[in-house]
Specification:
166 residues, alpha/beta, Rossmann fold, seven-stranded mixed beta sheet
């Protein structure tokens, strides 16, 4: 039994000796604190920054163990600017129902206060559709905006925890 264990150990060491390891900068952990200030809104759409920022914060609270804190108390700062907002008609489903697309593009930077350096900077574009009746709405533009905010937030969580983009 000892011989088998030693052979397995030798094989394991031989395999590992051929492996290459890379040292990567530490990524945010569940004990990290992050500040997410109100996104800057460079578009015409009123209250867009509030909705997008709230959804990003919600995604970080739901999917990470990171604590959301004031800027002076954080390890990381996630800053964003909404650089584009568009709504466009897609199709007329019937004479009474039309479908539209909301597209939002943001430019976001994750900055490490500890290391005083930018970890990543990304441009993210997401969209959602909504349907409207001529006499009212099945879904609202605001619901589509909220959904886009959730998608942007989910992608930012992934980028922050992985530290790189595929």
């Amino acid at each position: 039994m000892k011989i088998i264990a030693m052979l397995l150990m030798g094989t394991f060491v031989a395999i590992l000796s051929g492996c290459e390891y890379k040292v990567q900068a530490p990524l945010p952990s569940s004990t990290s604190r992050i500040t997410i200030p109100l996104f800057v809104n460079d578009t015409f759409k009123e209250d867009l920054a509030t909705v997008i920022t709230e959804e990003v914060i919600n995604q970080f609270m739901l999917k990470t163990g990171m604590e959301i804190v004031e800027e002076g108390k954080s390890d990381y700062i996630l800053k964003g600017t909404i650089i584009q907002y568009t709504t466009e008609p897609l199709i007329e489903i019937t004479s009474d129902i039309s479908e539209y697309r909301v597209r939002i593009e943001v430019l976001v930077t994750l900055f490490s206060r500890r290391d005083n350096e930018t970890i990543w900077k990304e441009k993210i574009s997401k969209y959602a559709t909504y349907s409207m009746l001529k006499t009212g709405s099945l879904q609202t533009e605001e619901e589509a905006i909220k959904k886009v905010g959730q998608m942007i937030g989910a992608e930012l969580v992934n980028l922050t925890l992985k530290g790189w983009r595929k």
